[in-house]
Write a structure and sequence with these properties.
The chain is an alpha+beta fold. The strands form two sheets. The chain has a six-stranded antiparallel β-sheet with strand order 1-7-8-4-3-5, sandwiched between helices. A two-stranded antiparallel sheet has the order 2-6. Strand 3 and strand 4 form a beta hairpin.
């Protein structure tokens, strides 16, 4: 399970678990070095952020991609910290709450405009191996953002995501040919 994110069985236990990300989309680097949050994801991020246009982004702890979500996750992450600490105590395990909080809350808050355009900080692009395209893939309480070339190198467990990404890339290429 990615650091900072609840397993499926924990979702119902998280306070305010109302926002869910699904589907997939592809956006290309635009003018002025900006990317765009796709409309379905943008709508959920904005709803999850009490109407604010703030995208939370972090490097995934195991996969070569980024994770994104709205501001409502902050309260959920506090609840997760409490739950993890309680579980560690029950099992007689050590729990470093400060370290875990640093892992969970190490995301960047990035503003986006009404059209979803945002500038991704260079360190996040570098960390997420991002170049000139973003493939968004819903993951329930969060979504992943992939460099399509990096996603294509993933194992067979990513077959459906890779097929979706390749299909969206083909659509963009076909549209470009028609112009």
């Amino acid at each position: 399970m990615p650091q900072g994110f609840c397993s499926a069985e924990d979702w119902g236990e998280v306070a305010g678990a109302l926002h869910s990300y699904s589907g997939q989309a592809l956006t290309l680097l635009g003018d002025k070095g900006r990317f765009v949050v796709p409309s379905d994801f943008r709508k959920t991020v904005k709803e999850s952020s009490d109407g604010h246009r703030i995208l939370c982004l972090a490097k995934h702890d195991r996969w070569d991609c980024l994770v994104g979500f709205g501001l409502s996750r902050e309260a959920e992450l506090e609840t997760q910290l409490d739950r993890e600490e309680d579980a560690a105590l029950r099992l007689g395990r050590e729990y470093d709450r400060e370290l875990r909080a640093s892992q969970l809350f190490g995301f960047e808050k990035i503003p986006f405009d009404d059209s979803g355009r945002f500038t991704m900080p260079d360190f996040i692009k570098t960390d997420g191996l991002i170049e000139d395209a973003l493939f968004f893939r819903g993951g329930g309480r969060f979504f992943t953002i992939w460099n399509p070339q990096v996603l294509d190198r993933q194992g067979d467990e990513w077959r459906a995501a890779k097929a979706g990404c390749q299909g969206l890339l083909a659509d963009i290429a076909a549209k470009a040919k028609r112009k």
